[in-house]
TrEMBL record:
<feature type="domain" description="ABC transporter">
    <location>
        <begin position="5"/>
        <end position="256"/>
    </location>
</feature>
<dbReference type="InterPro" id="IPR050319">
    <property type="entry name" value="ABC_transp_ATP-bind"/>
</dbReference>
<dbReference type="GO" id="GO:0005524">
    <property type="term" value="F:ATP binding"/>
</dbReference>
<comment type="similarity">
    <text>Belongs to the ABC transporter superfamily.</text>
</comment>
<dbReference type="InterPro" id="IPR017871">
    <property type="entry name" value="ABC_transporter-like_CS"/>
</dbReference>
<protein>
    <submittedName>
        <fullName>Peptide/nickel transport system ATP-binding protein</fullName>
    </submittedName>
</protein>
<keyword id="KW-0813">Transport</keyword>
<dbReference type="InterPro" id="IPR003593">
    <property type="entry name" value="AAA+_ATPase"/>
</dbReference>
<dbReference type="InterPro" id="IPR003439">
    <property type="entry name" value="ABC_transporter-like_ATP-bd"/>
</dbReference>
<dbReference type="GO" id="GO:0015833">
    <property type="term" value="P:peptide transport"/>
</dbReference>
<dbReference type="Pfam" id="PF00005">
    <property type="entry name" value="ABC_tran"/>
</dbReference>
<dbReference type="GO" id="GO:0016887">
    <property type="term" value="F:ATP hydrolysis activity"/>
</dbReference>
<keyword id="KW-0547">Nucleotide-binding</keyword>
<dbReference type="GO" id="GO:0055085">
    <property type="term" value="P:transmembrane transport"/>
</dbReference>
<dbReference type="InterPro" id="IPR013563">
    <property type="entry name" value="Oligopep_ABC_C"/>
</dbReference>
<dbReference type="InterPro" id="IPR027417">
    <property type="entry name" value="P-loop_NTPase"/>
</dbReference>
<dbReference type="GO" id="GO:0005886">
    <property type="term" value="C:plasma membrane"/>
</dbReference>
Length: 328
């Protein structure tokens, strides 16, 4: 099947100063460093990893909001047009973003009905008379009552505001939503409602999601496939049920071991230290400074993604030593 969206060897590098002095040397910050994935129509790819691993940058690259330093994004096999062009604006109707902070994503001075309909104005998609009806229709789809049309963001609860953000993203009838930590700013009681809404919308509207999150508990609920990022690279990707039930990469194993469970005696794997800076990526396997299984080979050779029998790919020199089980 033709993927809806495909990332091919994406890189996004930035030149950054190494000190506060404006004349200090520059280093290359490798925010995204050779990332590839596919998202099929109506499916969800969960993109997980610690803060600063490049997840959000990957989301922006996926929508063409920032250009890659190398590699490309393809939408239904066609290369992503350059940002700002008419072709890109046309494509963007079908690829929308849902941000982490609903209050920050909304204009406090505008009634929510106007904000929900705004993408129709930007994309010149509907006549003025139709926009109100389209806004009401999409509000109903996300469970917002009609009388809220004239309310302002500060008059709504956190859950209602995230529904407004979703309604605004859905009004152009997109095929893909990039959801960047869409529930992390919400109360725990509201998070489940928004997750259920996302699942329900996917079933009804056949939308695909790139679901970016550090919360594997939620990623497990919503994702068909999972890609785990560490320092700008994907270290493991595959079917969510395989990767999260039996993680193969030592980093994925540590992340999965931290998922709270009820009644399970799973041992928590604690990683030493913080991830290194993406402006100073260690040689070899970038995880070797925190990996309990690191060998001399790990410190000098970059592992590439290798396929395992269950269809997943894992970037680890030692993954084949014993199937899915590393021996220290
Ligand atoms: Fe650990 Fe080596 Fe595998 Fe990297 S390649 S995850 S350092 S065992």
């Amino acid at each position: 099947m033709t993927p809806l969206l495909e990332a091919v060897d994406l890189h996004r590098h930035y030149a950054v100063r190494t000190g506060r002095n404006p004349f200090s040397a520059k280093a290359l910050l490798r925010a995204v460093d050779g990332v590839s994935f596919r998202i099929q129509p109506g499916r969800t790819l969960g993109l997980v990893g610690e803060s600063g691993c490049g997840k959000s940058t990957t989301g922006k690259l996926a929508l063409g909001l920032i250009p890659p330093s190398a590699g490309e994004i393809r939408c239904e096999s066609e290369p992503m047009p350059a940002a700002g062009t008419a072709a890109w604006r046309t494509l963007r109707r079908r690829l929308q973003m849902v941000y982490q902070d609903p209050l920050g994503a909304l204009d406090r001075r505008l009634p929510i009905g106007e904000q929900i309909a705004e993408p129709l104005v930007i994309h010149e998609q509907a006549k003025p008379a139709e926009r109100r009806e389209r806004a009401l229709s999409v509000m109903e789809a996300v469970g917002l009552q009609r009388h809220l049309l004239t309310r302002y963001p500060h008059e709504l609860s956190g859950g209602q505001r995230q529904r407004v953000v979703l309604a605004r993203a859905l009004i152009t009838e997109p095929r893909l939503l990039v959801c960047d930590e869409p529930i992390s700013a919400l109360d725990v009681s509201i998070q489940a409602q928004v997750v259920n809404l996302l699942l329900d919308l996917q079933e009804r509207l056949d939308i695909a999601y790139l679901f970016i999150s550090h919360d594997l508990r939620v990623v497990r609920q919503v994702s068909h496939e999972v890609a785990v990022m560490y320092l700008g690279r994907i270290v493991e990707r595959g079917e969510a049920e395989n990767v999260l039930a039996e993680p193969a990469h030592p980093y994925t194993r540590a992340l999965v071991s931290a998922i709270p469970t009820v009644g399970s005696k799973r041992e928590r794997i604690l990683l030493g230290g913080d991830p290194p800076s993406p402006a100073n990526v260690p040689p070899g396997c970038s995880f070797h400074t925190r990996c309990p299984f690191a060998t001399a080979q790990c410190r000098s050779e970059i592992p590439t993604l290798q396929p395992l029998a269950d269809g997943r790919d894992v970037a680890c020199h030692r993954v084949h030593e014993t199937p899915l089980r590393l021996v220290a």
